[in-house]
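Format notes (please read before filing issues)

Several people have asked whether sequences and structure tokens are stored in separate files. They are not. Every record keeps both together, in the order shown below: the sequence lines, then the token lines. Line labels are part of the format and must not be stripped during preprocessing.
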Amino acid sequence: MKIIEKAFEEGRTTLSEYESKQILSSYGIPVTKEFLVNDLKGLVSATREIGYPLVLKGCSSEIAHKTEMGLIKVDIRNEVEATSAFDEMRAHMGTNGRVLVQEMVKGQRELVIGLTRDPQFGPCVMFGLGGIFTEILKDISFRVAPLEKTDALEMMLDIKGHKILGAVRGMEAADLDMFSDILIKVGRIGLENEHIKEIDINPVIISGNKPVAVDALVVLEERKG
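Then the structure lines:
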């Protein structure tokens, strides 16, 4: 895969959010509509294509914690706010930093989907409660890839908070077929790309009833030789 080869050529083992989502998208996993820009002209073009409200994020393979670094701005509603946020991020990152202009996905339910390459079992797919609750509650389940649809449905029901996927507080039930498809495809990515060590898709926001990958991180194995 060209994205992975490019990272290795540059001596990197971490992909940027934009690169990570390109890999997900190439497998048919739904991701946010977004554009990577490095100047004001690109910013204006992206905002017109996506529409407001939107999100701006500093984008680099070296940035793991965007929120703590002030490199994420949400609910941007006009060109003045977008330009101000863009200038502020570029000041933080320097002229080489690029900015991800992203649609703002609305939804109150956040899940996490991931993959880890176990030395014994190989690629293992993970599912659980996402957002800030991932580390706090550690409500997650695992299955070894490849996954069948029954495996994907079972692992979703395995978490204690599985009722979040149902019709709750006026929100419609999540599309479990779409979730199953994502889990199966994440397993496929691990099986078909031996250099991928980890995938972290967090959060996956349920927008209406459909899951959308809002943030993602792909980590590669150290290249041998």
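For reference, the curators noted about this record: The mean pLDDT is 94. Strands lie at 34-37, 54-59, 72-76, 98-103, 110-118, 122-129, 140-144, 196-207, 210-213, 216-220.
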